[in-house]
Structures are given as structure tokens and as C-alpha cells.
User: What shape does this take?
Amino acid sequence: MTVNSLLTILKFTFPMIIVSVNGRVVPKSEYGPTRVEDNDEVKVIHLIAGG
Amino acid sequence: MSTKDIQEMRQAHEVQAEFDYELGEVEKGYTNRTLYVNLSDNTIASKPVTQQMKDIFTGGKGFGLWLLWNGVTGDTKWNDPENEIVISSGPIGGTTQYPGSGKSLVVSLSPTTHSVIDSNVGGHFGPLLKFAGWDALEIQGKAERDVIVFIDGNAGKVTIEEAPEEAVDTHLIGEQMMEMFAKTDREKRDISTVSAGSGADHTLIGCLNFSWYDVRRKSVRFKQAGRGGIGTVLRDKKIKALVVKYSGSKGVANNPADRGRISRVGSKINKEIRDYDAVQNKMRNVGTPYLVSIMNDYDLLPVHNFKFGSHPEAEKIAGDVWEKRFTQGLPDGCWLGCTMSCSHAVDGYELRTGPYRGQVVIVDGPEYETTAGCGSNCGIFDPDALLEINFYCDTYGIDTISFGTLTAFVMECYEAGILNEEITGGLELSFGNAVAAIELLHQMGRGEGFGLIAGQGIRRLKQIFAQEYGGDPQFMHDIGMEAKGLEYSEYVTKESLAQQGGYGLASKGPQHDEAWLIFMDMVNNQLPTFEDKAEALHYFPMWRTWFGLCGLCKLPWNDIVPPDNAETDEPPKIPEHVQNYVELFSGVTGREVTKEDLITMSETVYNFQRVFNLKMGFGTREHDAIPYRSMGPVTVEEYESRAERYDKQLKELVRDDAEGKTTEEKMAALRAYREEQYEKLIDAVYKRRGWTPNGIPTPETLKRLHIDFPDMVELVRRHIEQRQQERDDTG
Assistant: This one.
């Protein structure tokens, strides 16, 4: 699975997010090629301002 | 309207009082005086702003709360003459170099909460009031007949004038005041009005409209101080309009201590907005409606009275729809110099209903709250219906959030059989019936029919529906989305304990200006423990309410982020922008501060407001309760719509595998768990804030914040001792 497909499964559609895999921030341009393996620590932080 | 019409209106005025004053200069963000107007005895006076006021209360909401505290007693009702409306911007208000620096805060006693309410608003009134010579406008008393109050900041004169001929509805009187007081077209930009409307005469949910003149559209535009019914208070005082005129607004009219400092941070953020807004939230093209599709995707958009968080038709009222309807390429800032420019409008809209049917108007909005509240929450997904509702709420002076949330409640009661067409006078108030919802609004404007009942707000409606129509009080208590008497704003909080607290613990009632933690909590999982949530429910309300002390809009804080924000220690705080505000405050006032000082400023006023609630008979733990709909599924339909989620939570969190249980039994188990969680959250938050377990700021907290005034300390001590006595009595 890639970061892109993971975001699709989770329905994380908000554009301003920070994705890190095992502590490394993944640039948006690398969501496609970056793979996520079992037991990887993945964090997705949404920088959403809200109301 | 013709020049002759305006002249005749002016000639019909009878001046009740006049007050001449020396025009002054703003000094580092302050004029150092406030204007007091009493409509009962026609007193107009200047009051000094002391150094203590600036040191403790900063400005804006702080000044408003201080003046109101001294104007009312604990027994004052919202419609007593002693109640006040106080309008103040704050030391940074009127700055043009930094985006979002034109806000005002309005403070009063609310007709629905019966306690102190504050509401923030854009438009030009606050800055022009300051440049006209006043840090705040304090209105007390009631006029015998309809009046306007005119503050002429060019001539140095304030008048109270009976105004029998002017309209009440905002889109008319806003233009009338512009035409009446502008001697030339150029002068129109120097005038701003505050008005409500006929809906504020007949409901408890009246809002205020603050105007500005849009020089490109050559029309008057409006922003709203929506929450809490202050428009109703305005009309109860028989005020048709407050008008300020000041010519000469310029970039340095706020007379900052260090122009260079504010220009540097202003240039930086303005460039950031121009470079990145289009790839972030598109505030300059779409504005706050960008949130609709996001909330829908994340199951947070209120649908059918907050029952659900998404709907397949939400795309019909999403941001891209509004982007096409809004006129693009115009400077849509609600104060000068705002590059965020998010006050969008639909031009050339022909009204289809109501007393102004056929008129072609500008609709200011809709914002996200109106779209969600009057749209998805009511099951309405027709953009034209929303434009109709938005326009009429504004001109009638009715808060769109309260209208949307209470209409959603009424619709659920209708579908549950508590109401019927006989009760509603023929209005089939089912979810999705836009025609009925719009007619309900017109009834509020006319003061008749079921609209007259509905406009009293959810807290009162629950009582009426139980007493008059046999509605189940517990059911209505669970689904009636109000807390402290104020209707909820438009986010589904069932899966975010932190946001449940953000709403339930908010000083004025469930308005999200204090805390918006849904994503940090529910999606990002950045607040896993009670202590994490409590810390967020300390920092973010204090940070977010700081803007209201200074005349600032919160949107430029985090609706745009620097490109490297992700690499900072605390990305949700947007640290670079926090530092901008440190520079901005110090640059304007000359007072050197740190980011921690900004929090302390806010914490001081926040705790003062909490004790003010206590003074008015509220302000304790029981008043921080929230309806169960905001915590979890009330109906079987709700539970079963998200059964997988809830069953999983029962298993993992409640340790109940729910095998063989009915849906009702599972709901009861989940409810017990969630209600207990909320109580634990409150315990953690009170402790973090330096409050007692009953939610009262301790004398030590008041002392730390330099608000240990004798009457405040006596008030909190009395409540703490009373509570201790109750505990002793019950053993």
C-alpha cells in the first residue's frame, strides 16, 4: 500500500495535511511512490482551521 | 429612494440630546475615553479609560465586559433599561497593514441565556468609532420612541434623534443612513451603521448588522454580530440605527508605536496569503464555505438536527458551488487592507419571497455556518433557498445560526409527531421543506403565527412543547441543541470529547470561537488523555479569545499557514503567526509582550467573564451541561446509521461486546460511558484552569490574574462556602 492509497481508504480528503511514516515527514510529491508496510507508524495531521 | 425621501426623513427627526466633544488623536491604539449614551434620560458623556483598564482588560471584549459589569446588577434582566450594549474594537482595531484588523466585539445581557453574551463582527463601525474618538460605545436605557444615535467624528458631535420615518430592516436603513449622512459619494465610505430589523422585534434571536460601503460595488454591505440576541436588545431599546461618520481613515490612523514593526509582519503575511491561499483554503475565492465538503467527508457536517454527519446531497451546497455564485475578483475584505478578503457576496440575486419579493439585491454570504445551519442541518440543499434565508435573516436582524439550529429542532419535533400542521398553522415543517422554513422566517419578520413561538429559542421551545403539546421532556432535552440557552453552532461533536467540552464549557454558550478541536482530537488523535484535552481546552480558548480583546479576526491566524509550518514544534498553534501577533501588539501599543503574555491577557478576561456569569446566577458546573445529541446517538436510527463504529467502541472502550443486546441496550451502555467521560473531562479542565470542582475560579486564581476586586472575591467565596455547606449537610 502507498501513502496515497492509505489516504483514499481513510477518506482523508483535506488538502492541508502532514503525513509522517516512522517519524519521517513525507512530502506531498512523494505520496504516490512512498510505501506503507505492516507495523509502520503512520501519522496524519490535518492542519484545519475550522470555524 | 430619492433625495427628497431622505430629506423628508431627516426633517422628521427630533433631536433629543446633543453632545459636543474635542476631537482627539488615537495614541498607540487607544483614544483613552469611552462614549456613554443613556436613552432613558438622554445623557451623553465621556468616560476616561484608565491605565488599569488597559492593563487588566486590554480592550475590545475586555472593555465591554468591564463597562457592563459596572452597569448592571445580578438581578438585571435583558430587557431592563439598565442592560447595556457595549461595542469596542481594541488597540489593534483599525490597523490596515495586517489582515483582519477591523473587528469589533459587542457585549450585552442575552435574551436567551439571561447572562452576559459577547459576539464578534467585522464591518467598519468599530474602527470608525475609534477614529471618531472613542475606544468603546456604551448604550444604556431605553428610548420612548424609535431613535438613531449619530456620532459625527468629523464635527465632534453626538446626537440622539427620534427617527420616525426610517425603515427598520437593515438593507433599507443601511442605505438610508448612508444617503442621509454622506454629503458626497466619496463620503459614503466614511459611514457605518449598526442595525437589526423587524425579526429582532419579534424574536429573542435578533442579530446586529455592521455595515461598510463597498466602493467597487457602490453598495452597502453587512457583517453580523450574530450570537445571543443582541439585535433584540437593540430593538427593545428602540434603536433603529447607530451611525458613525469619520473621514480620514488612513493607514496610520491607529497611531502605532512602531510603524516599521507592524509593516514588516503585515508584508510577510500578506505575501503568504497571496502566494498560498489558492492552494490552501481558497478563502479569497470561496471563503468559509470551503468547509462544507470537508465536514461532509469527515462525517462532521450537521444533518437533520445534528443526527448525522454527512449527506449525499451536500455537494449541492459545497464550496465549489458558491465559488461560481460569488462575484470573483473584488476586494471582499470587511476592513481596509485585508488580503484574506473572504467576505464574499452573490450579486444580482432576485428575491422570490417575502415583502421584498422581486427586488434584486446583494446577498452577503452565505458563510459556512449559514450553509450548514440553514442548509444541511434542516435537510435543505438548494442554494437559492439558502440565499433567500441568508438575505432575510440579515435584513430582519435574525441570527442565521440560531435560526438554522432551532428550525432543525422544530423539524425533528414535527417528524416525531410532537408538532403537527394544526399547531404550526399549516407549515409542514419536515426536514428538507425549504418553502416552510422560509415562511417560518417571514412569520418571524411579521411577528405572527408559529414564527412568533419558534423565535423564542430552543430552551423556551422545549418548555412550550412539553407544556402545550405533550412533548416528551427527556427526548426534547436530548435533541434540543442548546446549552446555557444559546443554540449550537454547526459542527457534529459526537466523536470528539474535546469539542464537546469546547462547546459545553464556552462562557457564552456553544459557539466555536473559543475552541475548535475536532480535528486535533478526533482525526489527528493528538489529544489522547484527559490532561491533553484539558491543556488544549486551556490554551486554545485563551488564544482564540485574545483576538476579541484587540479588534482582530482569527481567520488570518490559521486559515493560512506558512509553507514550513509542518516542521515546527507545534503545528496546530501556527507558531510563526503567534509571533506575528506578538510583534503586532507590541508594535501598536509600545508594550513589549511575549506570547505567554497574550495568553495571560486573555485568561484574565476569560475568568472575569466566568465570574460575571456567576454574578448573573449561572457560572457553575450544572450550567456546563450539554444535550446528549452532542455526545452520542439519541435515536435508534442514529445508532444504526453508524452501528459498526458504535459496536466497536462498546467493545474496545466500554469493554462490552454487546452480544445479544438490543440496540436500545447498547445505546444505554454507550450513553453511560460517554456521559461519564464528559464529567471526567470537566474535572480535568476545571483543575487546569484553576477553578473549583464546581467550576468557580478560586480566589487564588483571581489574585494571580489581578482581578481580585472585593466584590468578585466576595462573590466567589460566598459560592464556594455555600457549596461546602451543602456538602457538609449531605454528609
Observations:
- Residues 3-46 of chain A form one domain.
- The longest helix of chain A spans residues 3-10.
- Helices of chain A lie at 3-10.
- Chain A has one domain: 3-46.
